[in-house]
Amino acid sequence: MKHILLIATGGTIASEQTGSGLAPRLHPQDLLRHVPEAADICILDTIQPFHLDSTNISPAHWLTLTGVIEENYEKYDGFVISHGTDTLAYTAAALSYLIQNTKKPIVLTGAQKPIGESSTDAKTNLLDSLRFACSGDCGIVVVFGGQVIAGTRARKTRTKSYNAFTSINFPEIAAIHDQRIVRYIPFREPTEEPVFYHRLNTNVFLLKLIPGIAQEAFTLAGEFCDGLVIESYGVGGIPDVYLDELDDLIKKGKTIIMATQVTQEGSDIKVYEVGERLKTRYRILETYDMTLEATVAKLMWALGQTEDPAEIRRLFCKSVNYDLLF
Measured between alpha carbons, how far is 43 from 59 in angstroms, rounded to an integer? Predict the structure, then answer.
């Protein structure tokens, strides 16, 4: 029987009603009391490094989770992280960059309703996550609503429904039906040894373009960030009125990433003149088919490893955990 570590972090799955709304109150042993079937799936140990609504989770918590997994990596066959849904996709993406070439499954899950409610999805999600953690597969994934999604491809697309997460621009890794795992993407074990990273540069800002945004917004964003993600329209481009500000940011050595506000199909900034000039004049990086969550986490990771522009470019363009196909 596989030996799994359940890492509890709070979230809706562990919440109870208070006078001010739902708040995380349950500890990992409380969760397991609701799923006695877990004892038939694996041997379980638990740990609770923090206890938060996921709205309060920050990059420092991503590093904490990385440390917990690194410290326990040789002791367990797999890891399940119970997490709030609101920032779960960010955490899944960040762990994909902080823990690379893992030969063991690292599964993130949560719930749309607390585990103590009669109509909860928490029990199914938790048991499915334990099953996948015992499957012999590897990699960092989100298991939710019967879907198994690559950690860099998950996005929360529904606020209340049980099928809360969607795999963006990439097929689901697998589905779980009636306690059976049906794999869609062939299993691929890394040939390299696992690598744990311990540094992030969180001086990253996401600027969403809207018609009429002040030119000063670019300047102000650049004052406190080392990396700027510009969430533009369509396949990507910058309005003419912001080119002087963009020139200044480039001269100051800021790393600029062009993303798109459109969820599906990604960026392609060479299509239109407003984007092509960015490619030729500034050699701006773009997200292609990456999610915004993965883009932000990957930029923090790349900037945390080096200050060399060429190396930042190489790291950002390197495909990790199915995050980038171009």
Answer: 30
Task: State both tokens at 36.
Answer: 């006695």
Please, are residues 259 and 292 in contact by the beta-carbon 8 Å criterion?
yes
pLDDT of residue 134: 97
**pTM for the structure as a whole:** 0.96
d(CA 134, CA 306): 36
- Three-state DSSP string of 117-181: CCCCCHHHHHHHHHHHHCCCCCEEEEEECCEEEECCCEEECCCCCCCCEEECCCCCCEEEECCEE
- Contact predicate 151/93, CB 8 Å: yes
Q: Using alpha carbons only, what angle is made at residue 215 by residues 212 and 217, rounded to the nearest 5 degrees?
A: 100
Largest interatomic CA distance in the chain = 63
In whole angstroms, what separates CA 60 from the centre of its chain?
A: 14
Find out whether 293 and 155 touch, Cβ atoms under 8 Å: yes
**Helix H or strand E encompassing 292:** helix 292-305
**Residue 326 pLDDT:** 65
Q: What is the mean pLDDT of residues 273-302?
A: 92
Tell me the C-alpha distance between 87 and 128, whole Å.
20
Tokens of 120: 């909860």
Residues with catalytic function = 12
In angstroms, what CA-CA distances link 153 with 73, 238, 240, 283, 291?
24, 26, 32, 25, 6
Least confident piece of the model among 5-14, 40-49, 76-85, 270-279? 270-279
Secondary structure (3-state) at 275: helix
User: What does the pLDDT look like over 87-128, one tens digit per residue?
Assistant: 999 999 999 999 999 999 999 999 999 999 999 999 999 999
- The C-alpha atoms of residue 52 and residue 91 are separated, in whole angstroms, by 13
